[in-house]
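TL;DR need structure tokens for one chain.
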Amino acid sequence: MSKLSLIIVFVFACFFSKADIPVLEREVNLSFSNEPIAGVLERIKLQTGAVFSYQSNILNGGAPITAKFDRKSIREVLSVILPKNLIFKPKNSYIIIKERPLEKPAAKTELSGYVYDASTDKKLANVTIYDKTTLQSVTTDEYGYYSITLPTKNQCLTVNKENYQDTCLPLLQEGSITSFSISPIKNSRDSLWKKRIGDYSTKTNNLFKRFKGYVNTLNVRDTLDRNFQFSLMPFVGTNGLMSGNVYNRYSINLLGGYSRGNKLLEVGSVFNINKENMNGAQFAGMFNIVGDSVKGAQFAGFVNVTGRSIQGFQGSGFMNSNFGNVNGVTAAGFMNLNAKQVNGVTGAGFMNLNAGKLQGLAVAGFMNVCGDTLHGATVAGFMNINKASKRSIEGAGFMNVAKFAKDNFQVAGVINITHEGSSRLQISGFLNKTPMLTGIQIGMFNYCDSAKGIPIGFLSIVKHGLHQVEISSDEVFYSNVSVRTGVKEFYNILSYGIQPTGQNFWHLGYGLGTSFKLVNKWRSDINLSTHHVNSGGFYFGTSDLYKLYIGTEYKLAKKMSLAFGPTINLYVSDAIALEYEGTYSHVAPYAQYNHTTKDDFNLKGWIGGKIALRFF
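>> reply
TL;DR here they are.
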């Protein structure tokens, strides 16, 4: 490629590069010494490509120009070199210069200019400039330029930018370019401010990153107050682009609104969003989001979200989500999600999920989960899961589970489980399990490591409780083996016995018993048991022996004792069964009571006795 071609390409690249920049923002780097205004404009044209349009006679009264401009925009240069009776405006690559029209004193003042970094002298974009009285605001564009119109009575504008010192800008003569510098802050004042409002406030604010007013929420640290706000949607309302920086007493949002906070009442047909706190009452057709705390009441048709604590009442048709402490009542049609401690009542149609402590009551149609300690009560249609439960009540249609408990109360339709600690009460339809029982267990199956209380059920196993094997003989079955399990105050008896002579009778038995100490090595037992008597194979007819045993036990050695005592026996059999006459009529060795009912059941009763050796 020839040198001429390279030069042409370079010239075109420079031309189109300048063409992309608005004509008033093109940079001027020129020095002038006693030059007429027309000559200055011509040199600016040659350097920047801007074309000036004006009547030649309007420049006649202008003084010669002596000045040096380094990295200044055409806008800034013109504001310096043109007489005050002239104004200019851009049109594509043209700049039209004309005389300022005669006007009556205006009720408003237009202020414009550039904002610079005091340490680097670079123009700053996204600087917020606003009036605290009217809340009118602008932000500097990508070239650091701003323009704002305000009432003439205003004396000062507030200038804010994230990580820069706040500045007050005095109002000067209308039409002049007011450029100024702001200084960055070296300490962490801004980071401390961000820490104060909290992570959830920041996350709430980030929902509006694509909105024009978002930059104001980052720049402005001052809290602004208004009695009333009406908004169509965020940043479209009476507080304008400053709505994210304002606390309102009353806020009415036609679709939805965004504010820094609310102090008394907020109503939105679709949603309400507060960056920080809400005090009072808040109503939304769909959702409420509060980045910090709520003191009062929240009502939403779908969901409420609070970044920190809530004190009061929270109600939603679907879900409440709180990332801080709750002091009060939360009610949701589907779920309550609470990240920290709850002091009060939380109720949901499906589930309550509490990551922190719960001091109060949780009621759910399906499940309650407490990730910390429960001090109170949880009631669920299906299941309660608690990390720890201290002297608390857990009621569920299916299951209660506690990782650790101290004297808790569990009532479930099927299963209660405590993995560590102690339980005062466990009642279930199938299984109860706890390390330490300090009260009562009632269920089909009960298990605990140790017991200071009493397990009551079909089968109770206490690891450090009663485990006895009994070998006994009585007047019907000469050889019997029984297992007694539970605690001495209440135990289960599983037994098997045979009569090796005659009809070869054998039995399977189950019973309940209690044992209490008499003196020294002596104890007394009271057992009530039932035994199904069979001959040969298992007999499916009526052949049941009921026994009441009241006896005495003497401890022979550390793990062996002798037991003996009388029994009261009642044997019931089917008198019209084929096997009765030849077999089951001979079960009773004798009868002190013999009666056949009108339903053909034969009852035989007698006084007997039992002697046994017990081990372990």
